[in-house]
Amino acid sequence: MNRPAFFATALVFATLSAVPLAGQDLTGTWEIASQTQRGARNLTLTLVQDGGGLTGTVTFIMGGRRGGGGGGGGEQTIEITDGEVDGSSFSFAMTIARGGNSFTQAFSGTFEGDSMEGTIEGGRGGGQPFTGERGG
Predict the structure, then answer these.
(1) pTM for this predicted structure
(2) What's the CA gap between 53 and 86, in Å, rounded?
(3) 98-128: per-residue pLDDT in tens?
(4) Distance between CA 112 and CA 97 in Å, rounded?
(5) How far apart are CA 33 and CA 41, in angstroms?
(6) If we measure between CA atoms, which residue out of 104, 105, 127, 108 comes closest to residue 117?
């Protein structure tokens, strides 16, 4: 390969590698489902990725089932903390306060395009797997 063609090819690859791949950003609204000892749990994540940082909220029904009644607490929205993104991996935490007590749940997982999966640690029952889809 001659020098001009080599440098042109190298420039194209350098430019493409500096641009994030489409869909490789967590920003958006995600519907999450996990199975707990008390049954199915549905969460809504509203996330904003800024480089390797991640901020946002988690919305869920405290002590009940979204859309299905089930008592206690009503809808809660909690700010996430310690949010990080590294390639297709992410992690963050949320602290839930209830009845004078609080506990932290740590989320970690991977994502690709509009799908994610991972584990929720902390609270009752240890690690709980989850799956999620980005909303339209």
Answers:
(1) 0.74
(2) 9
(3) 888 888 999 999 999 999 999 999 866 668 9
(4) 32
(5) 6
(6) 108
